[in-house]
Amino acid sequence: MIKQLQQIALSSVEASKPSTGMVGQVTGVAPLEITVDQRLVLDEDFLLVTERVTRYEVSLTHSHVYKDETPTETATKTTQTALPDVLVIREGLKIGDAVLLQRMQGGQQFAVIDKLVKP
Asked: Over the stretch 84-117, which tens digit does the pLDDT of each residue have?
């Protein structure tokens, strides 16, 4: 009787599809598509994307205004533009990236937690 109750409890937990972690591979970027174990293909409808896996870039372009004072005149001048390129902080996801997924309870949505890298 106890074994039967244990089996029922285990079946109930498995049927509720508790949260589990898994590894997937990015197979598409626009629209986002991730494949898990070569059999489960997840598209944007099933994915919750965290900020850590999105592209993030900042512009550090700047110039300075200053006064150039000489004994005979004062002129307001501007320095040349510095750092004209955009600085990429995070690249975002690319095809072939391995990602850590967290299946949400119920199994209908998957959170893309982070990219995995080789040490």
From this structure: 889 999 999 999 999 999 998 777 899 999 999 8
Do 49 and 101 touch, CB atoms closer than 8 A? Answer: no
Cα Rg of the chain, angstroms: 26
Residue 43 near residue 33, CB atoms below 8 Å: yes
Q: How many CB atoms lie within 10 A of CB 34?
A: 26
Asked if residues 33 and 45 have their Cβ atoms less than 8 Å apart, the reply is no
Q: 3-state DSSP: the chain helix, strand, coil percent, rounded to 5?
A: 15, 45, 35
> What is this structure's pTM?
0.68
Q: Is residue 90 a contact partner of residue 58, using CB atoms and an 8 Å limit?
A: no
Asked if residue 35 lies in contact with residue 24, where contact means CB atoms within 8 angstroms, the answer is: yes
- Beta-carbon neighbour count of residue 110 at 10 Å? 22
> With contact defined as beta carbons under 8 Å apart, do 16 and 106 qualify?
yes
